[in-house]
Amino acid sequence: MRIVVTSIFVDDQDKALDFYTRVLGFEPRQDVPAGGARWLTVGAPGEEGGVELLLEPAGHPAVVPFTQALVADGIPFTSFAVDSVQDEYERLLDLGVEFTQPPTQMGPMTTAVFSDTVGNLIQIAGSNG
Q1: pLDDT band at 128, cuts 50/70/90?
Q2: Which of 18, 30, 96, 98 would be 41's cystine partner, CB 3.0–4.6 Å?
Q3: What is residue 123's predicted lDDT score, i.e. its pLDDT?
Q4: Binning pLDDT at 50, 70 and 90, where does residue 80 land?
Q5: DSSP code of 4?
Q6: What is the edge-to-edge ordering of all strands in the sheet holding 52-57?
Q7: Closest C-alpha to 42, from 69, 78, 96
Q8: Distances (CA, A) of 14 to 29, 63, 71, 118
Q9: Can you tell me the distance from the alpha carbon of 88 to that of 123, in angstroms, rounded to the nearest whole number?
Q10: What beta strand segments (E) does the chain contain?
Q11: Is the pLDDT of residue 129 over 90?
């Protein structure tokens, strides 16, 4: 068994696609009409056939209260690995990304948390070595 697709709820698929590709650097994978929305996925550059992130519309009634509660409590919806949290933090700051937590050492890891502009907090993490 392996993970093929995981999802994140977004309040605007077009805005999410722009942010996740232009700002974060993911590559578009699938863009298929699905009712009033799209099956819209991105993946890590150079990892064709790897795990895809579904930019899922936040249309279900439970989604908005759930994601708002996570944001209000400062809890990231998901986490992405980076080689250097400090370097990625500085790169994203230069692109206007808003962080709720600057790089912070937590045991053997360093993490930082930012807003993805479409309703979520996202954590980046990397080892301190």
Answers
A1: confident
A2: 30
A3: 98
A4: very high
A5: -
A6: 5-10, 52-57, 37-43, 27-34
A7: 78
A8: 14, 18, 21, 10
A9: 11
A10: 5-10, 27-34, 37-43, 52-57, 78-81, 99-106, 109-115, 121-127
A11: no
